[in-house]
Amino acid sequence: MKNIKNEIVENSKEEFRYILLGNIIDKHYYGEGKEIRSGTKQFRAGAKVYLFPEYGGMGHEAMPVYGLPRKSWKKIKIVIRSEMIKNVRVKKTYDLKLIEMITNNHFYNFLGNDESGLNIFADSMNENNKEIIE
Fold first, then answer.
1. How far is CA 83 from the centre of its chain?
2. Band of pLDDT at residue 71, cut at 50, 70 and 90
3. pTM
4. DSSP output for 12-69
């Protein structure tokens, strides 16, 4: 029987990992008055964010993301509504911080370092999240 901690350490020594990557939507309706806004409170429109799906029981309505915010040069990890994310795709990452975050995420541990499984998830997110205002 393998020790789970040893398995995580072995996985973290991988050269690269596949990760889900998306962009923040540009224009969308906000509030009861249907005001048109660009981006979100935390991220600029078009900002690149890394996705860390964890709340699958809610149909991934909200999702933790990691990216560079509007008003800081230090990346943050926050939970935003998944409808605020567009152009979801799979990329390789060599960043050690991201690899560590991936190894501690249950979603990525379930799929392993499988690009095809992540592509299926990315395609389903792209079908569900259409641009609200074009």
1. 12
2. confident
3. 0.82
4. HT-S-EEEEEEEE-SEEEETTTTEEEES-SSS-TT-EEEE----GGGTTSEEEEEE--
